[in-house]
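Changelog note: in this version the structure field was regenerated for every chain. One regenerated record is shown below for reference.
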Amino acid sequence: MSVFVDAVYPFVLVACAVLVVTGVAAIVLPRIQPGLRVVDKIFMAVVAVQAVAVVWAVISSDADTFMALAYTIAALAMLPLLGISRLATPEAAQKDPERPVLTPAQAAKVDGGAAILVGIASAVVSWRLYEIVAAAA
């Protein structure tokens, strides 16, 4: 449990901040989108480590299992939003006029906005997980 409180939680908060800053940078400078994609992948790994640490903390303590697992599932459920603009790239285009195709600048802005939202929401979810795990200490 102390591993989550002392190491994983601060690391997740730093990863959330990096994701938000990179998302803002991708909106301002669309050519940074490849860097944002790298940060997205790293962030997904950080959230996976967080999920494992929370499960371990719940097993090794008397933390509220239902709430901890619900917030962990919420943290994992947000990850597909990262890189969502890939659904509207020219490679994904069909002859359907209802399906939009984004320019590279628009795709970078969509990804940047999604990164900002996921970063902030993940920080809040991580804080709630911290409160649940720390309360069991």
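Spot check on this record: The chain has one domain: 2-86+99-135. DSSP finds four helices and no strands in the chain.
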